[in-house]
């Protein structure tokens, strides 16, 4: 199926545009999953209809979608193909964060505008190395004349086969201090290699391969941020607040689609009190996940990233995780044995939803962070 190009994404709701892609994405999902194949064709369609630049401000040539609209977009796509949704969420949050700065921090506009214009004008795809970096950082930066030589191995770079820029960092050690330097690395650089490593239980089509960086030079004026390793920084308050509602839209979308499949399969059998109970518990868990996700979005819309917003977002993240996983488990129960067959699609969604467990803040860390906030204790090193 050829996807019709949307010439002006700003005139159409991005969730509606995403909806036009779902049948095509759903048809491709099984083959991608079975063959550990990156969802390359879906990325071509996302570019064609303007969803790669959906979060870029309209004034800079993008779709102008806010976080709420982008969450809807990701939910819709993820219901059809979880791998496409998760990979796209990693690009989307890397756009949404500088877009938020463009709107909320006028002094940051000269810094973030060139990147946002490139996303809009060139359809470039941004990769995140957050899966192997997070607060501690990873890799090494060696100071040399005019800048730094970077050596690093980055894991979980979702969308790697389609990536143009890796937004990442490395640790500079000087006089016993460890400083994380943040910068972008072009995937086309000869010092950068995408390693074919992504063989997993679920989310098999995300192309979340490892990336090796061997001696890449970053000039002093290309360092976007310097921060102390191993503790929360103001920039990461912003990143955590904005990124995770987008990422967890994916898991909500998977749970919603699993519920619809299960209801359809259950309708082919006689109704029993037991099936009614399972369906009721499934819908209760889904409502809990939706309410928790709405709480995450509302936190972003306060436009005030802080230690408190991290707490609110991560409480929501934990609740979405637990309830979305429960929805899919109950969907399998409601469907019965037919749900065990690949053709039902439920078993793929069951595998894909497990990835919700592994993003920061994982449950024990989240509980410690929330408890420290409640008791007035330091949270700087809880991550």
UniProtKB/TrEMBL annotation:
Acyl-CoA dehydrogenase/oxidase N-terminal domain span = 23-98
UniProt keywords (A-Z) are: Flavoprotein, Membrane, Oxidoreductase, Transmembrane, Transmembrane helix
Q: What EC number(s) has UniProt assigned to this enzyme?
A: 1.3.99.-
Q: Where are the membrane-spanning stretches? A: 232-254
Provide the GO MF annotations for this entry. acyl-CoA dehydrogenase activity; flavin adenine dinucleotide binding
Q: Which Pfam families match?
A: Acyl-CoA_dh_2, Acyl-CoA_dh_M, Acyl-CoA_dh_N
SUPFAM superfamilies per the UniProt record, alphabetical:
Acyl-CoA dehydrogenase C-terminal domain-like (SSF47203), Acyl-CoA dehydrogenase NM domain-like (SSF56645)
Supply the enzyme class, top level.
oxidoreductase
Q: Where is the Acyl-CoA oxidase/dehydrogenase middle domain?
A: 130-214
Task: Report whether Cell inner membrane shows up as a keyword of the record.
Answer: no
Per the database record, which ranges form the Acyl-CoA dehydrogenase C-terminal domain?
Answer: 252-360
Entry protein name = YdbM protein
List the source organism.
Jannaschia aquimarina
Q: Give the source lineage, highest ranks first.
A: Bacteria, Pseudomonadati, Pseudomonadota, Alphaproteobacteria, Rhodobacterales
